[in-house]
From TrEMBL:
<dbReference type="Pfam" id="PF08266">
    <property type="entry name" value="Cadherin_2"/>
</dbReference>
<keyword id="KW-0812">Transmembrane</keyword>
<protein>
    <recommendedName>
        <fullName>Cadherin domain-containing protein</fullName>
    </recommendedName>
</protein>
<dbReference type="GO" id="GO:0007156">
    <property type="term" value="P:homophilic cell adhesion via plasma membrane adhesion molecules"/>
</dbReference>
<dbReference type="InterPro" id="IPR050174">
    <property type="entry name" value="Protocadherin/Cadherin-CA"/>
</dbReference>
<keyword id="KW-1133">Transmembrane helix</keyword>
<dbReference type="InterPro" id="IPR015919">
    <property type="entry name" value="Cadherin-like_sf"/>
</dbReference>
<dbReference type="GO" id="GO:0005509">
    <property type="term" value="F:calcium ion binding"/>
</dbReference>
<keyword id="KW-0677">Repeat</keyword>
<dbReference type="InterPro" id="IPR002126">
    <property type="entry name" value="Cadherin-like_dom"/>
</dbReference>
<keyword id="KW-0732">Signal</keyword>
<keyword id="KW-0325">Glycoprotein</keyword>
<dbReference type="InterPro" id="IPR020894">
    <property type="entry name" value="Cadherin_CS"/>
</dbReference>
<dbReference type="GO" id="GO:0005886">
    <property type="term" value="C:plasma membrane"/>
</dbReference>
<keyword id="KW-0130">Cell adhesion</keyword>
<feature type="signal peptide">
    <location>
        <begin position="1"/>
        <end position="44"/>
    </location>
</feature>
<keyword id="KW-0472">Membrane</keyword>
Length: 177
């Protein structure tokens, strides 16, 4: 709350209130400075898409290039990948900065019948320590044939059945989404 004092030149704030206003202004300017500084250093999230069942050693993407790191920085800053899922499906080639597949990934075993399958990863660099979040989306390939509950189905159709009548079949189970 401000108190105004009547002066020969009109109404004005007391000297202590003027100083308080300056301090508030200084802190507000400092806050905005930090806000814009952090805004300019925030990076977007990197996302890769790969089909399931890639063989070991397949390249997912050049993570060093996507993060803006030079080849010299890859080794010096100890670029490595940490999985949030527990198992290490990916590794980083220190010579080229590429994200590689460590082991075959079975999408159905990993995500079940979920419509999307995304593995979150952390790329860690040291000196200074930085964490970069990336996501690898595992796309489904048609590697499983549909399976019917019974191999044969017998239908008894009378001669008097009208043309165009439909006979429903039991649905097939397909592990692929």
């Amino acid at each position: 709350m401000f108190t105004y004092v009547n002066t020969p030149f009109g109404w004005a704030l007391t000297p202590s209130q003027k100083r308080m206003g300056y301090r508030e202004w200084r802190w507000q300017a400092l806050w905005w400075h930090h806000f814009f500084l952090l805004w300019s250093t925030t990076n977007g999230q990197t996302r890769y898409s790969i089909p399931e069942e890639l063989k070991q050693g397949s390249v997912v993407g050049n993570v060093a290039k996507d993060l803006g790191l030079g080849l010299a920085e890859i080794f010096d800053r100890k670029l490595r990948v940490a999985s949030e899922a527990g198992e290490q499906y990916f590794s980083v080639d220190a010579g080229r900065g590429e994200l590689l597949v460590n082991d075959r990934i079975d999408r159905e075993a990993l995500c079940g019948q979920s419509a999307s399958c995304v593995l979150p990863l952390q790329i860690v660099t040291e000196n200074p320590l930085q964490l970069h979040r990336i996501e690898v989306e595992i796309k489904d390939i048609n590697d499983n044939s549909p399976v019917f509950l019974t191999e044969e189905r017998f239908l008894k159709i009378a001669e008097s059945t009208a043309t165009g009548v439909r006979f429903p079949l039991d649905p097939a189970e397909d592990l692929d989404v």
